[in-house]
Each structure stands twice: as C-alpha cells, then as structure tokens.
Amino acid sequence: MYTIHHSKKLTNLSPVKYKLINLFINFCVNKLKIHTDFNVYLTDKNDNLGFNMTLACYNPNTHDIFCRTDSRFFYDVCRSIAHELVHLKQNQNNEIDWEKFTDVGGDIENEANFMAGILCKEFTYENNCRWIYKL
Predict the structure, then answer these.
(1) β-bridge partners, 114
(2) Would you say 25 and 78 are in contact if contact means Cβ atoms under 8 Å apart?
(3) How far does CA 75 lie from the centroid of its chain?
(4) Residue 24 contacts by C-beta under 8 Å, 6 or more apart in sequence?
(5) DSSP-based three-state secondary structure for 36
(6) Which residues, other chains included, contact 121 with Cβ-Cβ below 8 Å and sequence gap of 6+?
(7) Is residue 2 within 8 Å of 39, Cβ to Cβ?
(8) CB atoms within 10 A of CB 93
(9) Which span out of 7-11, 68-72, 103-107, 129-133 was modeled with the highest average pLDDT?
(10) Deepest of 7, 24, 55, 100, by most Cβ within 10 A of its Cβ?
(11) CA–CA distance, 63 with 130 (Å, rounded to integer)
C-alpha cells in the first residue's frame, strides 16, 4: 500500500524513529481509511528534489508525500506526514479542486491542519507513547 524511502543524507533518522514513522503512517492509513497506494519520501534540506518545498508536500498526480526530517522535532515530522495524508484522503474522495487549492486557509487546508493534530494525539494516547514528545 505504501513505501517509505529516505535520503542517504539524513543523519537524524535512527532505527527507532524510522520504525515509529512506519507505525504512525500505518495508524493514519487505518484511521483515515486510505486505500490509495502512495510513497513517503523522508528528505534532507540538501536533497535536490527538483521543486521547492517547505517542510512537507503531497503530489496529487503521483500520490507521493515528501517530508523533511532534518533539524525538526520528531513529533513535528509526524504532524507534517499526517497533514499530507489527509490531503491524500481528500484527493481520494475527490474533495479537492487542485486549480483552486491554496495552502493557506480554506476548508481543505484547515481540515488537514486540525486532522493532523488529532491523529498525532490519538496515536500517542492509543499507543501509550507520550515519551514521543521528547524525541
């Protein structure tokens, strides 16, 4: 259903963090009922992606999710991934008019913002891993 790829330039992605990201993505996929195949690319600020990216983005044509993990709190990385997974779900449900999409405000972006927060909190509570905030 999904594959995680990571940049060879990443130095902050320990095996524990990588495993947690995989568990978190699986959690989100189940909660959001995503059935679309996709890739997640964990990147470094020095990766040449061929496009400008802030901290994360979703490509609606390929269903690829890109997320920078360098120099960020782990929980923030999870929140960014969840945000982009919500956009994947919205796209899966044909809820987004990509020609009118804006990444600042609006119903689609606001839903991705608040759902990402909910998914992160639910993950920590359901997996009894409040220690994740310290990673």
Answers:
(1) none
(2) no
(3) 11
(4) 78, 81, 82, 123
(5) coil
(6) none
(7) yes
(8) 10
(9) 68-72
(10) 24
(11) 30
- The type of residue at 5 is H
Please give the model's pTM, rounded to 2 decimal places.
Answer: 0.92
User: Beta strand 2-6 with 38-43: parallel, antiparallel or unpaired?
Assistant: parallel
Residue with tokens 């409040």: 130
DSSP 9: T
Tens digit of pLDDT for each residue in 69-125? 988 899 999 999 999 999 999 999 998 887 777 777 788 899 999 999 999 999 999
Q: What angle do CA 15, 88, 116 make, to 5 degrees?
A: 65
Q: Cβ atoms within 10 A of the Cβ of 102, count?
A: 8
Tokens of 113: 């913002």
